Amino acid sequence: MARPIHLNLFVHGRGHHEAGWRHSGATRQALTDIDYFRDLAVRAEQSRFDSVFFADALALGDGAQFVASGALEPITTLAALSQTTSRIGLIATASTTYTEPFNLARQFASLDHISRGRIGWNIVTSWVGGAGPNFGYEQQIEHAERYARAHEFLEVVTQLWDSWADDAIVDDASSGRFLDPARVRKIGYRGKFHRVAGPLNLPRPPQGHPVLVQAGSSATGKAFAARYAEAVFTAHLTKQSAIDFYAELKAGARAAGRSEQDIVILPGISAAIGSTEAEASALLDELDSITDVSVGLGRLSNRFGGYDFSTLPLDQPLSVDDFPDPSTVQAAQSRAAVITQLVARERPTLRSLLRRLAAARGHFTLSGTPEQIADVIADWAESRAADGFNVMPPVLPAQLEHFTEHVVPILQSRGLFRREYEAATLRGHYGLARPANPHFKS
Q1: Which of 42, 67, 124, 160 has the fewest beta carbons under 10 Å from its own?
Q2: Where are the domains of the chain?
Q3: Which residues are annotated as a binding site?
Q4: pLDDT digits over 409-419, tens only?
């Protein structure tokens, strides 16, 4: 396999489409039922996916009345799933804005030990406006400050993971010596936002560091990813946009002194799959027809930092003048840019834009037969638009079953995707090196 494609399952409620939870192919299990998430992770593992990913938000969304909401917290979910899977990577979102570095370093190091090296951390700065008041902030912290905090946070966390040498534990019962204190160090970090003495109070993770994942695609986000990220989840509505992003981020990694192979780029793809084109298209049309306009307006408003779109006519073509400048948005700058680019390119009505975004919130959506979906995946990989994909089934579990039973075998038959795992860690699946510890010689 010359250039393997990576596949990551993005679990979002009962499906990535806003109306997916209402479809007959969606589970009726509660979003607090761990068996539901276990079954999805096991199915993905049986199909040899690289990883399964859980996003997170630190506030209940305004549209919770009309959208399946209230899923389990992702870090504790990974601990449970680590015991019902054995090879698939497990990735959870955690915020650098509304948590403390020592706590997070300890949680993810523990998870990496529990799973024997299968953990990834999706690093977010938490753009959702409702998060701040849940953590004692009257107003949302601005975009630039959130990223400044994130830089310090990453420095602290990685130093804490590296505060133990791999051989620090002696565990010699006969001599009574358990730990070599010369192989553990305080970090003494003092920054603008964080002051942490260290060391961490448990050994270095099996992977050295859990895999660092990032999803922001603003200018600030891309600079952050080029420096730190090892896997990037990104949203693109066109292949050309994905190609441009891919080239820019790989170049950014090289400029930061890293190799192209040090970073894996995984655009989101939400595919409505049917046995025929007509069947697949009908599924997407059905889901679009049962979306709630108020939910879409609320989510669009949140992407633009609370901007009110409710005064715009639903059935008149939009222009970029109807939107704030994405660079001024203090929420999701990169997704705001994706949306305004779509508006400039296609001039959709507000109603059609909301339906477009309902499918995957700015990620690439399509409908087709398994062969057609496999063709698109192969084409994007060959065109250097992607190293693989963040698979976002619109309805769960039905559309995941279609993907694993019909699309994956096609990719395998073409030599584009693994038939068996060759590695035991998430780093191994992604082809990433284990980071050396700069503070201790082996």
Answers
A1: 42
A2: 6-277+364-430
A3: 56, 93, 143, 147, 217-218
A4: 999 999 999 99
The pLDDT assigned to 333 comes to 65
Tens-digit pLDDT profile for residues 23-75? 999 999 999 999 999 999 999 999 999 999 999 988 887 677 777 888 999 99
The fourth-level CATH superfamily of domain 6-277+364-430 is: Luciferase-like domain (3.20.20.30)
Whether 151 shows a pLDDT value over 80: the answer reads yes
Q: What is the 3-state secondary structure (H, E, C) of the chain?
A: CCCCCEEEEEECCCCCCCCHHHCCCECCCCCCCHHHHHHHHHHHHHCCCCEEEECCCCCCCCCCCCCCCCCCCHHHHHHHHCCCCCCCEEEEEEECCCCCHHHHHHHHHHHHHHCCCCEEEEEECCCCCCHHHHCCCCCCCCHHHHHHHHHHHHHHHHHHHCCECCCCEEEECCCCEEECHHHECCCCEECCCCEECCCCCCCCCCCCCCEEEECCCCHHHHHHHHHHCCEEEECCCCHHHHHHHHHHHHHHHHHCCCCHHHCEEEEEEEEEECCCHHHHHHHHHHHHHCCCHHHHHHHHHHHCCCCCCCCCCCCCECCHHHCCCHHHCCCCHHHHHHHHHHHHHHCCEHHHHHHHHHHHCCCEEEEECHHHHHHHHHHHHHCCCCCEEEECCCCCEHHHHHHHHHHHHHHHHCCCCCCCCCCCCHHHHHCCCCCCCCCCCC
Q: Is the pTM of this model over 0.85?
A: yes
